[in-house]
Amino acid sequence: MLQQIRNGFGPKVSASEQSLAALHTLAAEAAKAAKATAPAPVAKSAPAETKPSLPPQITIVAGSPEVVPTVSTVWTWETLEAAALNCTKCEHLVRSRTQVVFGVGNRNAELMFVGEAPGADEDLQGEPFVGKAGQLLTKIIQAMGYSRDDVYIANILKCRPDMPGGSTGNRKPKPEEMQTCIPWLEQQIALVKPKAMVALGATAVEGLLGSNGPVGKMRGKWFEFRGIPVMATYHPAYLLRNQLISEKRKVWEDMLLVLEHLGRPISEKQRRFFTQSA
Ligand code: SF4
Predict the structure, then answer these.
(1) 274 dihedral zone (left: phi>0; alpha: psi -120 to 50; beta)
(2) What's the pLDDT tens digit per position in 182-223?
(3) Which of 124, 166, 198, 274 is deepest in the core (most CB within 10 A)?
C-alpha cells in the first residue's frame, strides 16, 4: 500500500482517497479503541492539557495499520493535529515516545521540508528538527532567504522510533511504521499545498517517492508527489557526519534549484556559497 500512496515514480496512482479515508477511519475508530483498550500515551514532557482532545467525529484504531473509509470528516488543521497528537496506531511507539511530533511552521508555506523521524531532542521538545541536524537545517533555510517560520517542516514518522532495550541513538523507521504513519503527512501536505517540497535524506525520499535508491543518485533532480515538485537532497545529519565542502555544495546546489523553481531572488553571493571563491 505504501507504494500505492506515492506517485513520484512510474505511473501515477491516485491514492489521496485511500489515504484520506485511512485517516478518517483510523481517526474514527481509534478514539473508541483508545478509550477502551489502548494504554494511555506516555506524556513525559508535554503537559496533558496542551494536547488538544480528539474531535468527537474522529476515532483511531489502536495497534491497527488497517485503513478503511468510514466517515466523511473534512480535515482542518485543528482536527488533523488533534487526531495525530492522540494517535495510538503503533502501540510499541506509543509506549516509548514522549509525544507525537506533528510538524511546525507556516501552514500556508510555499516550501515544505520533509525529514525522517523525531530524534531524542525532537521527541522531548515536540518539534521536528531541533537537534544539531535541525540547527543546520535552520541555517540552510536562512541561507536561502527564509526564516524557519516561513516554511513548513514535518517528518515521515511522527513518533520517535524505539530503540532496543531503550538504548540511545536513532534507528531508521521500518516500512510498516512508515506505511502506518504517512497518511498524517499526506494530509498535512494537502493542507499546506506547497509549491515545492524538499525530501531530506533516504527515508524521506522513500516515504514520498517510493524509491530505495541512494540519495546521491537522486539529488539535484525534480520528482513529483501528487503534482507537487519534490527535490531530493541529503539529510542535514549527513552533512554533520561528512564535513567536506563539496558535500555542502551539493546540498546548496539543490537548494538553488528550489529557489529558482520558486522564482526567489538569488544573489551572486548566494550562488557562490560553498565554493572556493565564496
Ligand atoms: S508513528 Fe505515526 S502512526 Fe504510529 S503512533 Fe506515532 S503518529 Fe501514530
Answers:
(1) left
(2) 999 999 999 999 999 999 999 999 999 998 889 999 999 999
(3) 198
Tell me: the pLDDT tens digits for 46-89?
444 467 776 666 666 665 544 433 444 568 999 899 999 999 99
Which protein residue's CA is at the shortest distance from atom 3 of ligand 1?
181
Which SS3 state, helix, strand or coil, does residue 231 take? strand
Could you tell me if residue 249 is inside a domain? yes
Q: What is the CATH number of the domain that holds 154?
A: 3.40.470.10
For the record, the C-alpha cell of 211 comes out as 524509491
Q: Quote the number of domains for the chain.
A: 1
pTM, entire model: 0.81
Instruction: Give 117 Cα–ligand 1 centroid separation in angstroms.
Output: 10
Amino acid at 127: E
In this structure, is residue 8 part of a structural domain? Answer: no
CA distance 192 to 112: 8
Q: Determine if ligand 1 sits within 6 Å of the CB of residue 104.
A: no
Q: Does residue 93 line the site of ligand 1, with CB under 6 A?
A: yes
- Virtual torsion, Cα 183, 184, 185, 186, nearest 10 deg: 40
